[in-house]
Amino acid sequence: MLTQAKPIATASREFAVTRTFNAPRDLVWKAWSEADRLAQWWGPKGGKLDVAKLEFRPGGVFHYSMLMPDGATTWWGRFVYREIVKPERIVFVSSFSDAKGGIARAPFDPTWPLEVHNTLTLSEHDGKTMLELHGAPVNPSAEERVSFEGLFDCMQQGYGGTFDQLDEHLAKT
């Protein structure tokens, strides 16, 4: 078990998404923890992900660029891992970033929170894996909280497309 305890303040309402994959938990874990696998499914449907750095450990960083589906726009993002409990839980803070890995404002909304605290849990039942992801902004302003909570439906759709890609990746492996 790898852990790094660090308290973090978040908003009162969390975003949550749940998905069941027809794959064992070990395989789903690898899809989240290995750079070559993440590059095959993370991000918007129709986009292309390039992993700039993956240090899968507490305090480590996943830094990536996403060529968006329009083929012309690139967005950068990063996770900073807070806690890793193999193969059950990954706690990380996500944000948009610049090419050097510094935190940046979201390209789609100047009031989107700078950082989102996420807890991903994986549980296995009869060879299938249930994924639960909960997220909330870190120390948001009132405006950032409203922006985050106002996009719950869009986030459900976005994660739906991303998790469709994960489903396709798992079926191939």
Helicity range: 25-40%
Strand content: 35-45%
Strand count, sense and barrel status of the largest sheet are: 9 strands, antiparallel
Secondary-structure class: alpha+beta
Counted up, domains total 1
In CATH terms, the superfamily is: START domain
CATH architect. name:
2-Layer Sandwich
Q: Note poorly predicted spans.
A: 1-7
The shape is: globular
CATH topology name: Alpha-D-Glucose-1,6-Bisphosphate, Chain A, domain 4
Q: CATH top level? A: Alpha Beta
The helix tally amounts to 4
Mean pLDDT across every amino acid position:
93
Domain Activator of Hsp90 ATPase homologue 1/2-like C-terminal: 22-170
Protein name: SRPBCC domain-containing protein
Pfam families: AHSA1 (PF08327)
Family: Belongs to the AHA1 family.
Structural description of this entry:
The protein is α+β, with helices and mostly antiparallel strands and 173 residues long. The chain has a single domain, classed as Alpha-D-Glucose-1,6-Bisphosphate, Chain A, domain 4 (2-Layer Sandwich). It contains four helices and nine strands; from the N terminus they run ββααβββββββαα. It has helices at residues 25-33, 35-41, 142-150, 152-172, and strands at residues 2-3, 15-21, 48-54, 61-67, 74-85, 89-97, 103-104, 116-125, 128-137. Strands 1, 2, 3, 4, 5, 6, 7, 8 and 9 form a nine-stranded antiparallel beta sheet that branches. A hairpin with a 6-residue loop joins strand 3 (48-54) and strand 4. Helix 1 crosses helix 2. The longest helix has 21 residues, at 152-172. The two termini are 26 Å apart. Belongs to the AHA1 family. Residues 22-170 form the Activator of Hsp90 ATPase homologue 1/2-like C-terminal domain. This is SRPBCC domain-containing protein.
